[in-house]
Design a protein that fits this description.
6% of the residues lie in helices and 56% in strands. By secondary structure, the protein is mainly beta.
Length: 376
C-alpha cells in the first residue's frame, strides 16, 4: 500500500508540473482589391504560409486565416481576433500588411527561435521589433496563412519572414521574398523573382524570366523556358531540363546542369561546375576559384568560349566540333586534345586549336589543373 501511494503522489506532482493543454482558434477574413490593383500589390506577412494563384475574377483577392494557440478556447479566440490587417487601395500602390500588435503579442513562438528564457531574439517587421522565442510555453503560437488570387498580368510583391511561400500557375510579374522557409513556383509565366535568406528555392515549368537568390539555401530549377539568373552564397544550383539561357553564381556551392538548351555561364568561388546534355550553346563562360569544370553535350553552335579555373581541371566533350579557334593556357597541368581534323599548335606552353573555319574564339586558362578536350 505504501508503494502504491508513493507512485500516485509522484503522478499527481508530474501532472501539476505539466502545462495546460493548448487549444487553438482560427479566424478567416477576405478582401477584394479593385481591378486596377493588378498594376501592383505589395503584401507583408510575418509568420505563416502563403499561396499565390491565378485568379479568374477581376482584381486581386486576399484571404487571411489567423490561427492562435492559447491555454483556453476563449483566450485563443480573443487573440485571433486581435491580428491587425492594414490595407491601402490606391490603384498601383496598393498594400496589404499583417501586423501582430506588441501589446497583444509581446513574444512570438517560432521553431527557430531561442529555446532559453534568458536568450533574446528579435526580427524587424513593418518598422517594429518583434521578440521571438523557441519555447512554446513562453510565447504565443500564432500564424497567419494567406491565399492571394490575381488575374493574368498582375504585379505582386510578397514578403513572408517565417514560413513557406508557393506560387501555382501565376501569370504576370511576381516577387516572393522569404527568410528561411522554402520558396516555390510551378507552372507560371512572366517575370519571376524569388529571394530567400537561407531557405531553398524551387522552380518548375516556368516560362519567362527567372531570378533566384538565396543566402545559403539551394536553387533547383526544372523544365523552364527561361532566362535564368541564379545566385547563392554557399548553396548549390541545380538545373534540370529546359531551354533559354543560364547564369549561375555561387560562393562555395556547386553548379550542376543537365539537359539544358541554350547559352550557359557560371561563376563559383570553390565549387565545381558540371553541365551535361547541353545543346544550342552559342556562348559558354565559366569561372571557378578552385573547382573543376566538366562540360558535355552538343557544342557545335559555340561562338564564344571562356573557362578560367584557379586549381581545378577542365573537361570538354562534344560529338560535333564547333567552328572555333581555341587557346589553352595551363600553369602546371597537362593538356590532352582529341579533335580529328583540327589544327593544333603548341608555343611556349600555350596550345592553339583551330576547328573548322575557326569563326568563333575561345580561351581556357587553368592555374594548376589539367585540360582534357574530346571533340569527336
Amino acid at each position: 500500500m505504501r508503494r502504491i501511494f508513493r507512485v500516485t503522489a509522484a503522478l499527481a506532482l508530474l501532472a501539476a508540473c505539466l502545462p495546460a493543454l493548448a487549444t487553438s482558434a482560427t479566424v478567416t477574413r477576405a478582401w477584394q482589391y479593385k481591378p486596377e490593383s493588378v498594376e501592383g500589390l505589395a503584401v507583408r506577412n510575418l509568420i505563416g504560409d502563403i499561396r499565390v494563384e491565378r485568379g479568374t475574377q477581376p482584381g486581386v483577392h486576399v484571404t487571411a486565416r489567423a490561427t492562435v494557440e492559447a491555454g483556453s478556447q476563449a483566450e485563443a479566440e480573443r487573440l485571433a481576433g486581435l491580428v491587425v490587417y492594414q490595407t491601402k487601395d490606391t490603384g498601383s500602390s496598393s498594400r496589404f500588411d499583417v501586423r501582430l500588435p506588441r501589446e497583444h503579442f509581446p513574444k512570438i513562438y517560432w521553431t527557430g527561435g531561442p529555446a532559453h528564457w534568458w536568450t533574446v531574439s528579435y526580427v524587424k517587421h513593418l518598422g517594429e521589433r518583434v521578440r521571438l522565442s523557441g519555447k512554446r510555453g513562453g510565447a504565443i503560437a500564432v500564424q497567419v496563412d494567406l491565399v492571394i488570387r490575381a488575374p493574368a498580368g498582375a504585379k505582386l510583391d510578397v514578403s513572408n519572414v517565417f514560413g513557406e511561400s508557393t506560387a501555382q500557375g501565376f501569370s504576370g510579374d511576381l516577387k516572393l521574398v522569404g527568410g528561411s522557409g522554402v520558396l516555390r513556383s510551378a507552372g507560371g509565366e512572366g517575370r519571376l523573382e524569388l529571394d530567400n535568406g537561407s531557405g531553398e528555392v524551387v522552380i518548375s515549368g516556368h516560362r519567362g524570366r527567372v531570378g533566384a537568390d538565396t543566402g545559403s539555401g539551394t536553387v533547383k530549377i526544372t523544365d523552364c523556358e527561361c532566362e535564368i539568373v541564379a545566385d547563392t552564397g554557399s548553396g548549390s544550383v541545380d538545373i534540370q531540363g529546359g531551354k533559354g539561357s543560364v547564369s549561375a553564381d555561387t560562393g562555395s556551392g556547386r553548379v550542376e546542369v543537365q539537359g539544358f538548351s541554350g547559352s550557359f555561364s557560371a561563376d563559383t568561388g570553390s565549387g565545381s561546375v558540371r553541365a551535361r546534355g547541353l545543346s544550342s550553346v552559342e556562348s559558354l563562360d565559366v569561372d571557378t576559384g578552385s573547382g573543376s569544370v566538366t562540360i558535355e553535350g552538343d557544342l557545335s553552335a559555340l561562338g564564344m568560349l571562356r573557362i578560367d579555373t584557379g586549381s581545378g581541371s577542365v573537361n570538354l566533350r562534344s560529338p560535333v566540333q564547333p567552328s572555333l579557334e581555341l587557346r589553352i593556357n595551363t600553369g602546371s597541368g597537362g593538356v590532352d586534345i582529341e579533335a580529328p581534323g583540327a589544327t593544333v599548335r603548341e608555343t611556349n606552353d600555350t596550345w592553339t586549336v583551330r576547328m573548322k573555319e575557326g569563326a568563333g574564339s575561345g580561351v581556357i586558362d587553368t592555374g594548376s589543373g589539367s585540360v582534357d578536350i574530346d571533340f569527336r
